[in-house]
Structures are given as C-alpha cells and as structure tokens.
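Worked example

This section walks through a single chain of length 272. The input is the sequence exactly as stored; nothing has been trimmed or padded.
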Amino acid sequence: MVEKNDDKQTDVNQSSSNRDETAAASSNEGISRRTFIKNTGLVAGGVVGGGVLGGVLGNQWFAGTDTETAGEAETDGESNNFQEARMFFKRPEDFQVLSAAVERIYPEDDIGPGAIALGVPYFIDKQLAGEYGFNARDYMQGPFYEGAPTQGNQSSMNRRDVFLQGVRLIQSIANENFNTAFFDLEGEQQDEILEAFENGEPEMPGMDSAAFFEVLRDATLRGAYSDPVYGGNQNMDGWRMKEYPGPQMAYIHMIEDDEYQDMEPVSLHDHN
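Given that input, the structure is written out below as tokens.
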C-alpha cells in the first residue's frame, strides 16, 4: 500500500509539473487561458447580445482588414448560376409573361437594372413554390365574402393559383387584342394591358384583377429589395440604388466619424 501511494504521489507531481510547463508555454506564446476564455465569452455574447459586442469585437480584431464580399471573388472560367432555375412555373410561356410584366413594373433605367436583371422573376417563382405560394401563414378557411377596400384580398385562392390565372389571362388578352404574345409586345402595349389590370377591368375568375395586380406589384418590389439569399436583388444592386448597406454587423467602428460613409452592402450569406 505504501508503494502504491508513493507511485500515486509521483504521478501527481509529474502531472503538476506538466501543467506548469503548459501554462508557461501558453504564457510565452502571448495568450493565457483566462484571456482566451474571456474573448471566447465575448464572441458568444456578441451572438446573443447583438450589434454592440459584435461591433466592439469587429473594431478591435478586424479593424484595417479587407473583407471580400460574395460577388467580388474572382474565379477562373464560367460558373453556373443556380439561382436561375424554375421551381414552380412548368410552362416557359407563363414564366416569360411574368418576366415581361415585372420588367414593366420595375424597368431598367439610367439609375440601375430592372426586375429581370435583378432576378425578380426567379424570386417570385421560388416564393410560389414554398409557403408563400400556399398561403401557409394566412387564414384560409371560409366563409368568404367580398371585403371592403381597406381589408385587402379576401379571395379563397392561394397565390399559386392567383399567379397562374393572372399571367395566363394577361397572355390571353395580348393574343386577343394584339394577336401576339405579351412578351413580344412593345412596352406601351404591355403597359396598356397592365393598367387595365390595375384598374380591375378584366374579369378574373375567383379574384378581382386589381387585387392580382397589387399582389404582382408587391412581389416585384419584394424581389428587387429583399436579401439576395431569397433569389432576387442580384449582386445587391437593388440596395445599391437605394444606398442601403444591408445587414451590417455593427457601425461602432465608424459612428464617431463625421465624414459621409460610402459602404458596400453585405448580404446575409456574407455572415456565414
């Protein structure tokens, strides 16, 4: 028993010696365990606490460093744009009508790109393929009555059906009045049809055509200004036209600067 205790005491002394050597090595490397734990705690707190701690850390640790946003990175050769893949519209003609319509609502001009270049048609397509298209967060049980103008859309149709009926009615009116597809018309002719929808003139089964135009316009603007992770606002150009910086982690490193800050926007995927 005495010999075993001696061995145990020897092991304890060796372990203590090893810990002392490790601590000394850590001290020589310029960072202590206590400092590491404290900084790690700040990082964890920054996630929970929001922009203040995140800004402090960003100011202390990342000041003067260059960060490369998505889209600035250069790659050799061509890459596939997987955002441009239809998930809802099965007929190319329907998607072409949608694309032409949203481009007239949000056209390209001297200020910046239009809806097509911003990826709005694909944004709407992806939204219709998910909860938005099924009205998953809306109360959709009857009875259904015609609502007052202040009550918004009261139709029993979900948005998937609304968009399909809407774009096909647009195409039908174009063929009937101009004997050609909507996406082949001149801009003024397309505007004439869209204005008729805005005024609620065409008869649309199950829904007022003015309500469809309102939904179409709302989805167009959402696609132009939402975060690019949802498929629209390509290259964050919608934000650039508004000079909106996107979801920055913090502004504490520049808040005391009196100069105007010209900031490159960042997307949610830049924080991954």
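What to look for: Residues 92-135+147-242 form one domain.
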